[in-house]
Amino acid sequence: MLRILTLLLAMAFAPLAPTPAFAVFPDEVLEDPVLEARARELSKGLRCLVCRNESIDESNAGLARDLRLLVRERLVAGDSDEEAMDFIVDRYGEYVLLQPTVRGANIALWLAGPLMLLVALAIGIGYLRRRSAAAVAAEGAEALSAEETARLKDILGQ
Q1: Both 82 and 47 in a single domain?
Q2: Is 47 strand, coil or helix?
Q3: Which of 30, 74, 106, 121 supports an S-S bond with 84, CB 3.0-4.6 Å?
């Protein structure tokens, strides 16, 4: 009886479960399923300029809708996927890409992280080597003579 009740409750609340939200409205969908599939693929790689780190395929923002329509217009006009993406990047800049290219000024951004890691490792290794060399030098220092030890005890009042 308890299992049946649990199953009924699960079925009753199933429609309330979170599902991925796609913001493509029915009036945006192209009649040609091949073009629509291409448009969806392109939309997944374009950033919503309002929502940040959300693709235009997932965003409900007005600008995302405009970008989705622009992608579909370019595909209907006969552009290849590359031509459509180039058109949008030329118009909005490379920031519109969720996966920026590795060329031009972006090379510095792509290389900055690994280079900073290497610099940090070099600094850390240098510090540890100097520290261990100082410890070895301190161990090799001459011990206090009997006269110096007596003087030290006198100063310390022992």
Answers
A1: yes
A2: strand
A3: 74
